[in-house]
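== Protein entry: sequence and backbone fold ==
=== Local backbone shapes as whole numbers ===
==== Amino acids and backbone structure tokens ====
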Amino acid sequence: MTVPDTFHEHCRRSGGSYYAGNDTQLSVTIKCQPGKRNEVKTIWESMTRPHAESNDKVQFSCYSFANEDADAIILFEVLSDSEVLTTLYQEEWFKKYLAAMGPLLAGPPEIVTGTPVWIK
């Protein structure tokens, strides 16, 4: 049995827990140099946050300090499609962002993507 698309949209807009869409989930764990997490956050706030706020394809974005590690950041996003990532990596502002925060990181970020099956 196929549920009509209008039901899918209704559930998404009303906060319902049924989900069947084409979104992409992005999870990034960033490990900062000791004591540099706030500097990385400042760079993110000035260079990345404005793009996330203005991009309609970023449906949900959560930037968090990890509780278990004083030098780690977790970014979790739901994007309308995976093309957002392809475009992002090519944009000049994103290259500048990576260059600015790169020296403050302890290593490359861990990036995991997925296809949401259920969202509440």
